[in-house]
From TrEMBL:
Subcellular location(s) per record: Membrane
Keywords recorded for this protein, A-Z: Membrane, Peptide transport, Protein transport, Transmembrane, Transmembrane helix, Transport
A Pfam family annotated for this UniProt entry: PTR2
Record-stated family: Belongs to the major facilitator superfamily. Proton-dependent oligopeptide transporter (POT/PTR) (TC 2.A.17) family.
Domain of life of the native organism: Bacteria
Main location group: membrane
Record protein name field: MFS transporter
Stored NCBIfam families: yjdL_sub1_fam (TIGR00924)
UniProt topology in membrane: Multi-pass membrane protein
Gene3D superfamilies cross-referenced by the UniProt entry: MFS general substrate transporter like domains (1.20.1250.20)
UniProt key word Transport: yes
Naturally occurring in which organism (per UniProt): Undibacterium griseum
Transmembrane regions listed in the UniProt entry: 62-81, 88-108, 114-134, 155-175, 181-199, 261-280, 300-318, 345-366, 378-400, 412-434, 446-465, 485-506
Amino acid sequence: MTQEAGQPAQAKMPRQIPYIIANEGCERFSFYGMRNILTPFLITSLLLSMPEQLRAGMAKEIFHTFVIGVYFFPLLGGWIADRFFGKYNTVFWLSLVYCAGHACLAIFENNRNGFFTGLFLIALGSGGIKPLVASFVGDQFDQSNRSLAQKVFDGFYWIINFGSFFASLLMPIFLKQFGASVAFGIPGLLMLIATIVFWSGRSKYVYVPLAPKDPHSFLNVVRTALSSAAPGQGRNGFYVAVLGLVLAGGSLFLIPQIGIVAALCLALVMVLGCGGMGSWMQLERARGAHPDEAVDGVRAVLRVLVVFALVTPFWSLFDQKASTWVLQADLMTKPSWFQSAQMQALNPMLVMLLIPFNNLVLFPLLKRIGIELTALRRMGLGIAFSGLAWIVVGFMQLAIDHGDALAITWQILPYALLTFGEVLVSATGLEFAYSQAPLAMKGVIMSFWNLSVTIGNLWVLLANSSVKSEAVTAQIKTTGISVTAFQMFFFAGFALLAALLFALYARSYKMQNNYRTS
């Protein structure tokens, strides 16, 4: 491998990295331990008072609402860290909130209000620290050793899946054998260990100082661009941004149909989408009032947000492996000792195998034959592979609907396709998000990366709400397939279209290098 210009001959790995990696492994065990048994617990315990035919749909709705919260609160965590307390302090204190949430799940297994309070605290704690831990990893590197950063981000993602694998394998067994208190209590204990490990490395970390209040910040530049009038020019960008506010207000009228969480997320999408588009249209008007580098930085961020938006369909497919795919697995033949939720352990196991295989075998082999898989090419291919996975799942559902007895082992193929797509999208996306973020916006831009997961789960809630309409279900019946199978093929097409648009956009995207200097 040729040495990059400006890189020392032997870059050194920061000695504090093991503390962050160990913290992440324990935290991910705690999160996936409770997340992967949430749907079966809701169906078999907390929602027993509901009619049986409604439980699966309600469990799926609660699950994706929870995931929306987990990936929405990174906005709050990133803002607090970047403006007030710094990454380390924000991660530490929100980790304690996270522990309290796990305690609520273990204590209030038969109390809806207490249990949902626990889900809220976990969403707040887990979501709040999510962008900061990955960004904190990046802070430990500078220009002298940034060549090692991608390897650490890959290792970071590997340890996430190491924790997820054992959690997915063991927690469904503990739920069945020992009950919800133990099954939810063990992840809580792991989260407490994660917090202690993170705290133990406090004297070794690199602490990047908070950026001073900047009159040329992202929001200030955007505000200037939207509010400025230019002689002889209209204010189309401003009107587009106002349209976003109007549409956001209109989204709130959909609360009775789609629920308050989905409506609020849809309102956020309208504000971000129209506000970003309007800012792009009038951004040049901010020059003069703000330095050129500030205006160029805002344009760079807006370009990154387009990439994030095109990734949202991937997350709408990926997160349904813990809801839709588990419900499908319930309809498949399997040994009596095997729980449907345990199938999810296949995903992290494959990730742990695919990351070293890709880096050591596949990518070098492709490079030798002249195929360079850049970060954006990997992400686009990952979205496409997720669509292929859902085509396979859709055909399996058709077989089940026609009365065929399918073994649960058939799900191995779609899990393999989806996991390959995940490695290409998510592991690459972590480093991409950090490297493209301006120095003053590391936490916030990582929050927007996580927000793409929230929006992906919003698409799921909207799709589920639409099929509650008798007119929609009647139209689906004319196709001759079940609603479930129709939704599977719909999401597959959604992802493949997104992959095509992603590929077209990536052709004109200019990569940035925003690592700090040594």
